[in-house]
Amino acid sequence: MGTDHHGRKDHLPDRSSREWCAEALARLDAGRPDSALDAARRAADLDPSAEWAYRLISLAHERLGRDADAVPAAERAVELARGSWPARLRLASVLRRVPGRWGDAVEHATLAAKFAPEEAGPRVLLGDLALLRGDHAAAERSYRAALATEPGQPQARVNLGLSLLRWDRHRPHHDPAWPVNPRDTGRARRALEVWSRQARLLVAVATVAIVAAALLSGWGAQAELGGFAVLALLVPLTVRQARRVGLWRYVRPMLCRDPWLGAHLVSAAVSVAAFAAWLLLAAMPTLPAAFDPVWAGLAGIAVLGWPALATVRALAEAWRGRPLRALAESARAQESERTARRNTGVTLWILLGRTWSVLVPLLGGALAVEPRAALAAVAVPYPMVRGYLRARHRGDRWLLAATSLVALSAVASAAGGLSGSAWAWRAGLGSLGVAMAVFLARAARAWWRGGAGPWRASLLMCDLPMGAEPSVPLGPEVRQTFSYARSIVLSYADSLGPRVAGAVASVTSSGELRLIAETEAWDAIEADPRVAVFATDPLQRRFWVEVRGIAHADSDVLRITPKQVFLGEFPGRHQRRQT
């Protein structure tokens, strides 16, 4: 009888290592990682060669947010069973969060997919690795391959929707494959952002102040001197933030990965240059009056740079990806995955933004040129309404209200264009304005409460635990068969088809088979490690064993990790049973 991590007695009888592993898995599923860690450690103490126990230890540490502690246990599991696809999957899942180990994570995930092409998990993780790097095409291929194997896989379904939306994680500037801590690139990014924000704000405030002083009080010359003081102030601010960047060799790749960061920096640099040029032009007394519009244009760049950039980004984010296809994927996983419900709602808001951004210029152009052209507005909300009805998303009344208002706007404006009714036009345009007000109110509510907002940044990646599958044990009957077998046959495949070879085998304490086989089999096994080993028990002459597994070369022997074990009796394999 043992005690749990709170000091209470768990009232569990003495159990075997596998029973403690099953108990640890049950506790993980129940959301008790601390208690699961205790059970998994007890399993490892009872059987130090139980790789399943070490995988569960790693998973419990990961659930507790201890990625550094999760790595050694996962590596130990791989050492014990090099051909175990769940062990490779568990190690890859942990290593993707360790700076500098991204390449190792991809390697182990690729091996897991090679060891178990019939399993969806390795394909899902490969898709996640591609998605986190921003390789949406590769991620989509991996997720579709996983769904072809297991159509109900929720993580593949949800994350496929993200790849179709061309989603970027919250650190788009950082490439996980870089051998540098994301915190360091994050600090560099913050320094660049702070400089661009400070530069634009100072220039904008100075421009407005100079214009106001010149027009209202007649102190234009003094205000211009203040503008030059602002330029001088920017020098120490720039030097200070440049020192904080530190990782200058990563700045260019960061800007390539995050073009909006580059846009902010370019906007700030242009604003400062425009402000300086404006001051210099204004200080030239012989400048012709025809250059006055130039001053106004340069001042406009300084003051309107940020609002214009924010507007362009909002439109670009709304029109990025294929939300209708993404909606079809995430909506199918709503019932089983909470993340899918959240992403479905955000995708519907993105569709709403697209529809609104089309209706505004369409209706504005119809009013200015030909009112009857507003009839085309009736077709604009169709994809949005169709997606909303198919998604069957419930719980967000703000979304329902905004969707209804945008649809009403299209119908009312079309009616106004055909009939010439001013009230219909007012109803249509007013509905568009109210829909925007609903969006802003919903966004303010989400910001105040710290919840998911109606914007792309609220999309979440589904990240379910991986690598907890039970290992395949070799029972007493199997061990006895391989201990006394006089003939053991190894079956493998090469470029010419299936092959068989004689072998000598033994069973290790960790449940692996150790084989000595002819050298011709080694090259073929390196290309395709999936093998089968057959043996008959001379003590029970009608009894045979088939072990299917993954072969891995280790020195002068082949280590075979079991994936499936079949037992049977002659004369036919139809009498077999799986253990």
TrEMBL record:
Superkingdom, natural source: Bacteria
Record SMART domains: TPR (SM00028)
Keyword entries, A-Z: Membrane, Transmembrane, Transmembrane helix
Transmembrane segments: 199-216, 222-239, 260-282, 294-316, 398-417, 423-441
InterPro entries in the record: TPR-like_helical_dom_sf, TPR_rpt
Keyword match Transcription: no
Protein's name in the database: Uncharacterized protein
Taxonomic source organism: Nonomuraea diastatica
